Amino acid sequence: MKQDSIESSEQQHINAESQCSPSGEGDASADATPAKPLAVVYMPEREFLLPYFQRELSDYMVVTAFDAVGESKPALAVMVSSTDIYNVKAGRELTEETSLLSSSPWREKEEAWAEWCARNSLAVTIVRCPEVIGTGMRGLAMRLARGIARGTLLHIRDNEGLISLIHATDVAALAIRPEHQGHTVNLTDGTETAMDELIDALAYRLGDKHVLTIKWPRIARAIYGSEFYDDMTRQLTFSNSLAMCLLGPSVRLNKVTEYLRTHNYNEESL
């Protein structure tokens, strides 16, 4: 996550070009740039992930609008969904067996993806992510980062809130792995992160800012409002055990808070 970037990345359009050389007397030659294989990465509400996937899939033409592919046959197809699809407000190490909301935007998106995959004889591959940390991130993580940057976010004394996270680099690297093809899995960094730990790591990344603590939770609720206060103090985490079982023991994930504190960001970093 770059300090000076909180905007999501715009979708890039890639046009294939062909070139033909004129034929000479007695021989003919034609040079054409080979078309890149097509990768469909459906990432609703998380378009900021596109540069991360383009970096991982540099040999592919990456598109995000699956309904605009036409007759082209993708070489790879995956949906980045959300753990917001589950019908839970709190819980720890929740698995893919957790009940889904009976009706929700995420459920509708997953069903549309599954229908498209079926029409195109593709395996239905879905990775459900919690808060994704990276350049252009959105949701709760972005609200925390903005509050830290503006000096308006405070720790809440004795906060026992826990959250699941994953870094955008790991989403892009692992979602496309062939082991996940045909499966629906939770994808997290494998830890239960304390809310205070996340806030401190974001503060460090944003110039090692100091975050003060409010002593009275009821005052914090009045300041933040019930919804944001609940997001900061609840314990809601998800298990990635199925994903790791499929990937095998050799795969190592980045613990998000450590990544924010130790990664050497440079001009090539996203």
Walk me through this protein's architecture:
It is a single chain. Helix 5 runs parallel beside helix 9 and helix 6 (217-224) packs across helix 7. Helices cover 31% and strands 16% of the residues. The longest helix has 15 residues, at 105-119. With 270 residues, it is of the alpha/beta class. It starts with 37 loop residues before the first strand and ends in an 8-residue tail after the last helix. It has helices at 50-56, 105-119, 139-150, 168-175, 195-205, 217-224, 226-233, 241-247, 256-262; strands spanning 38-42, 61-63, 76-82, 91-94, 126-129, 131-133, 155-156, 162-163, 165-167, 184-186, 193-194, 213-214, 235-238. The strands form four sheets. The chain has a five-stranded parallel sheet, sandwiched between helices. A four-stranded mixed sheet has the order 4-13-8-11.
Outline:
The protein has helices at 50-56, 105-119, 139-150, 168-175, 195-205, 217-224, 226-233, 241-247, 256-262, and strands spanning 38-42, 61-63, 76-82, 91-94, 126-129, 131-133, 155-156, 162-163, 165-167, 184-186, 193-194, 213-214, 235-238. By secondary structure, the protein is of the alpha/beta class. The termini are close together.
Listing every helix as H and every strand as E from the N terminus to the C terminus, the arrangement reads EHEEEHEEHEEEHEEHEHHEHH
Flag low-confidence runs.
Answer: 4-30
Cα(first) to Cα(last) distance is 6 Å
Strand order of the largest sheet: 2-1-3-5-10
Beta fraction of the residues?
Answer: 15-25%
Helical content class: 25-40%
Task: Estimate the global geometry from the Cα principal axes.
Answer: globular
* Main sheet: strands, sense, barrel: 5 strands, parallel
Summed over residues and divided by their number, the pLDDT gives a mean of 88
Total helix count? 9
Structural class: alpha/beta
How many β-strands, per DSSP? Answer: 13
Could you tell me the radius of gyration in angstroms? 21 Å
